[in-house]
Structure formats: structure tokens, C-alpha cells
Design a protein that fits this description.
elongated, two-stranded parallel sheet, Four Helix Bundle (Hemerythrin (Met), subunit A), two-stranded antiparallel ribbon
């Protein structure tokens, strides 16, 4: 399901409890995004020794990583919406929130870039700008969500700008959507 063959996702109950179990070998211990909790090992001392030397670092993305993808993904969503493929456009907005907007909100708060994970708990979406990117199955709603995503991306990008900008953006994307920046009535 998650593309990780070593992961066993378990649901216990009757009071439901979700547990992820990851089965790895000693050679898998040298790099992690978080320090794992070792529940069982044939040689726990050796495991702890490797973990003490391991490169444990969350894979935060830099501004150029976001820039290289943002306009392409937003254009994809806009093209799908304009063709009437609203579910596909809505799916792209979900993806964009998880891959770009959520991580950039976490970056702003100096947290690990974890998609939209716990944005409410940390107060990262308190302005409502992220919620404005959530769309219903309606062209006007999807277009409004896309415009909100563009505007929030631009605001978050200003926190830590990429080394260069994509020429003509966001104007070309606003034109593609038939939206005049600064004119909310046209959404």
C-alpha cells in the first residue's frame, strides 16, 4: 500500500490502535529520518552502536526543489480542471498541499517538513489559507482552490526564495485559468 515492503501495518482492537512495524536488516540502520525504537534484535548492543553512528536526518526540501515542481503541478491541476476532469484536479490539489504547501508551512515554523501532518495541532493553518485550497466537485470551487494554492505558494516562497524564479509565473498560470490576479470577482 505505501510502497514499503518491509512495513507491516497492524490495527488492533477492540479499542482501535494502529501500529506500524518495520522489519529491517543491520545494513538498513545507517540512514534514517528518525531514530527508530528497537523492539527486538538478536544483538541489541550492535544495533544501538550502529544507530549511535547513523545519519539520522529528516529529508527537508530546499526552495529550488519546490520551485522545480510547483508550477508544473499547478498547471497540471489547472489543465485537468479546464478539461472538466475535476476529480483529477482535486486530487492534484491534495497532492500539492501534501508535497509543497504543508512542507513549506512546516519550514516556516522551523519544523520537519511532514506534508500536512499535524498542521492543525501546530497552528500552521490558522489563517485559513491552506483550507482555502480544499475544493468541492465543482469547477468554480476547484478554480478557487487552485488560485488559493498559487497565492499561498507565493507567500510561503517569499520566506526562503529559490535561487531563481520561473519566468512568467504566476501570471501565465493565472492567464491559463482565466483569472486576473487581484480580481477575486473573476474566480
Amino acid at each position: 500500500m505505501l510502497g514499503e515492503p518491509r512495513l507491516l501495518i497492524c490495527l488492533y482492537g477492540p479499542e482501535l490502535l494502529h501500529i506500524d512495524l518495520k522489519f529491517i536488516t543491520m545494513s538498513d540502520l545507517e540512514r534514517h529520518v528518525e531514530r527508530p525504537l528497537v523492539l527486538w534484535s538478536r544483538d541489541k548492543g550492535a544495533v544501538e552502536e550502529i544507530l549511535d553512528r547513523a545519519d539520522i536526518r529528516w529529508p527537508n526540501m530546499d526552495p529550488d526543489w519546490f520551485k522545480a515542481r510547483a508550477w508544473i503541478w499547478l498547471h497540471y491541476g489547472a489543465a485537468k480542471a479546464l478539461r472538466g476532469e475535476l476529480l483529477e484536479a482535486i486530487s492534484m490539489l491534495v497532492f500539492f498541499r501534501d508535497q509543497v504547501l504543508g512542507p513549506m508551512l512546516h519550514r516556516r515554523a522551523e519544523r520537519q517538513q511532514r506534508g500536512v501532518r499535524r498542521v492543525e495541532a501546530y497552528g500552521l493553518g490558522k489563517t485559513g489559507q491552506l483550507a482555502a485550497t480544499v475544493s468541492r466537485h465543482d469547477f468554480r470551487s476547484v478554480k478557487t482552490g487552485l488560485v488559493a494554492a498559487i497565492n499561498l505558494y507565493l507567500e510561503l516562497r517569499a520566506d526562503e526564495p529559490p535561487r531563481s524564479e520561473v519566468k512568467g509565473m504566476p501570471e501565465a498560470l493565472f492567464d491559463f485559468l482565466g483569472y486576473e490576479a487581484g480580481n477575486a470577482a473573476r474566480v
